[in-house]
Design a protein that fits this description.
Distance between the termini: 92 Å
Largest sheet: 7 strands, mixed
Structural class: alpha+beta
Shape: rod-shaped
Radius of gyration: 29 Å
Order of helices and strands: HEEHEEEEHE
Number of strands: 7
Length: about 170
């Protein structure tokens, strides 16, 4: 009986410690996985943008050219033959405004993306046609600080939505 009792106690002891060891191993594994996931998320958030890059909340990034000075904003994409795919021109204004945009001397249709000071999309003007003689002006419904011009169809193809965040290196134009 003593031998049996000792065997039972030994088995019980091994079972408890094995369960405890397994629980500790599982817990340690979960902690390690959570740490790795946290580091990956942090690395994603700290991703360095290139100087000429704009990224959307959906992960889509494009090459951009800045139009900062009054002369650059006035010229925009005029007289160019093409705007390469996945690229655009970002107009930067010195303060919030409701600027008027037109397509005089632009040789291809565009989408305008109106972007507020918080770098969230506040509106669009899609498939803006080229013009020859009379060129209408297009303006946002609310004050903006940035306008992104991209090839027609870009807004729809990339499922951009009002309120989506954009990320780009902010250039102070004051």
């Amino acid at each position: 009986i003593l031998k049996r009792t000792l065997i039972l106690i030994l088995n019980f002891y091994i079972t408890i410690h094995t369960d405890l060891f397994m629980k500790k191993s599982i817990l340690l594994g979960l902690v390690i996985m959570a740490s790795i996931a946290g580091c990956a998320q942090q690395a994603e958030q700290k991703r360095q943008l290139n100087a000429n890059e704009l990224c959307f909340e959906n992960g889509k990034c494009i090459s951009i050219e800045y139009a900062i000075t009054p002369e650059e904003r006035a010229g925009g994409l005029m007289y160019r033959e093409v705007l390469p795919e996945n690229s655009g021109m970002l107009f930067v204004f010195p303060g919030e405004t409701k600027p008027g945009f037109w397509m005089k001397n632009v040789k291809f249709p565009l989408d305008f993306v109106w972007i507020g000071k918080d770098r969230r999309i506040v509106g669009f003007q899609e498939n803006v046609p080229t013009c020859m003689d009379y060129c209408p002006s297009y303006s946002p419904k609310s004050d903006i600080l940035y306008v992104l011009e991209v090839n027609k169809g870009f807004v729809t193809e990339n499922m951009l939505k009002i309120g989506q965040k954009t990320d780009f290196l902010v250039i102070d134009n004051k």
